[in-house]
Amino acid sequence: MKEWKLIDTERVYHSKYMSLFNDKVMLPTGQKITYTRAELKDFVTVLPIIGNKIVMIEIFRYPANRLSLEIPSGYVENGEEPRECARRELEEEAGYKVGKLRSLGWFNPWTRSIRKAHLFLAEDLTKGTQRPDETEQIEVKLLSTEEIRKKLETNKITHAPTIIALQKYLLMQLDYARR
Amino acid sequence: MKEWKLIDTERVYHSKYMSLFNDKVMLPTGQKITYTRAELKDFVTVLPIIGNKIVMIEIFRYPANRLSLEIPSGYVENGEEPRECARRELEEEAGYKVGKLRSLGWFNPWTRSIRKAHLFLAEDLTKGTQRPDETEQIEVKLLSTEEIRKKLETNKITHAPTIIALQKYLLMQLDYARR
Lengths: 179, 179
Description:
The structure is a homodimer of 179-residue chains.
Chain A: E1 5-14, E2 18-26, E3 32-40, E4 43-50, E5 53-61, E6 66-70, E7 73-75, H1 82-94, E8 96-97, E9 100-107, E10 117-123, E11 126-127, E12 138-144, H2 145-153, H3 160-178
Parallel strand pairs in A: 4-10
Antiparallel strand pairs in A: 1-2, 2-3, 4-5, 4-7, 5-6, 5-12, 8-11, 9-10
Helix pairs in contact in A: 2-3
């Protein structure tokens, strides 16, 4: 593997959510280019299961100006473990406390950043206290596996982390069904 | 659905790849906040199939400083249709011309932007000419469905668009297998 060599870097944007850097790098060919790299907080996405239903939230997404059907997600705060974050976000957004929390791995949402999205499966839920942020208008919805399958097939779910978690869950279910 | 009301906007960052805006908005509660919104080019991700193998590429990703196992992806250029883009990227990155191209829908990679990622399934492939960008160090790899399944299960694939496309393909395969 031939690595790129960092020559110089400049921070060109900074906010609470994101920093952007123009990295001047040398490619293995010797050519010099500028690559824009982003730094963003990691986040978690939690798939909560009650009986044979999946707990989803319908949340208003401002850039698209529409409601989006998702599972709970949120930024990992400084000093927080992803697992803690998953428990916190599930209670804040959907109003459930988690009994059993199982990691479903992680993925990289954007190649310009090393940001990680951690996936969890949450089971043995009990009622907690929903307390969404001021910016969150959330309605909780329980859906069956069959409803999820149809919504995925007809492109009614467009939130990437939700799609990854739900498809993973369906694959797990189908695999069990074959045994 | 209660929409947010845009009061004012300021562009705080701009490059060839991305613009960032601080939108001052009024929430349905009457409270005013600043929301950082991004504008980015749409992209396509193409899942190429040859016989019973999936064509993947191993590509160097600079921010993570490692090789990543992915399927071909790329920005939709101005004036280009997503389907054209899929054909172009597949030939540029993996060196194959597409016979049959089928849409697998789209998703939204990042909630701060309305950017769309369009997914395609490419079949009836013939050899074309690979011509990667100067920044792309690419090795083409053919994998079986079983190899893909294992790599997904063991978190060896972390590129979100690739995961979504491969999971979708596995679900399609399992569904067929059940009939």
